Amino acid sequence: MFNSSVELAAYLIHWSSPGSITAEQGWKTVRLALKRLMDCTKMDMHEIGNYLMFRELMKPRTAELLENTGYLLMDVERKLTELVMAVVEMDVSQWVHGYRALPLPFVQTPDSFLCEVLGGLVDENLNFYAEQVDENGLWPVTWDWDAYPSEFAVAKRYWQGIVALERYRILRAFGRLP
Question: What is the Cα–Cα distance from 21 to 19, expressed in whole angstroms?
């Protein structure tokens, strides 16, 4: 429902002057998005990712967040933790079978608030990434566009680059690159 508008609203707030019409538009969306977040019991992994980026952008604005929404950042983190734990595939043996929610897209650095909660799964995911990289330094794309096979053939190469950049950034952040 707020994929990707909660993240876009956070960027709007981040780059706007406090109190501006633009910032207020961002806060209006954020209020709706936080109501949804706090009321839901299940959320798609992509939308959770948008809320996590929102959370990153709000870290330096905790007082503004409370003033404009009535929510503490800690409450947002608590709810995101609950939703991440519900969506992450905990069975490591299933990670090779298609498109799954793995821990590392939610834990980008060792200092993430989710790192401790996901514990050993983070190390397992780092190992999995290291095992899955091919001889060209790329990872397989684990999804496709059944309705658009010819378009996906082109897009797949772009996605391999996007996935590689994301995973190398994570591997570097965790000290897994030479």
Answer: 7
pTM (global) more than 0.85: yes
CB distance 171 to 126 below 8 Å? yes
Cα–Cα distance for residue pair 20/6, rounded to 1 Å = 18
Structure-token match 């309705």, residue found? 147
15-46 tens-digit pLDDT? 999 999 999 999 999 999 999 999 999 999 99
SS3 content of the chain, % helix, strand, coil (to 5): 65, 0, 35
C-beta of residue 110 within 8 angstroms of C-beta of residue 173:
yes
Q: Which two tokens stand for residue 142?
A: 């684990």
Q: Residue 171 is encoded by which pair of tokens?
A: 């591997």
The Cα-based distances of 107 to 38, 75, 144 in angstroms read 21, 18, 24
Alpha helices in 40-148 (DSSP H): 45-58, 62-69, 73-87, 115-118, 120-132
b vs e for 147-158, b when ≥16 Cβ sit within 10 Å of the residue's Cβ?
A: eeeeeeeeeeee
Mean pLDDT computed over 71-76: 98
CA–CA dist 164, 158 (Å, integer): 10
Report d(CA 135, CA 95) in Å as an integer: 20
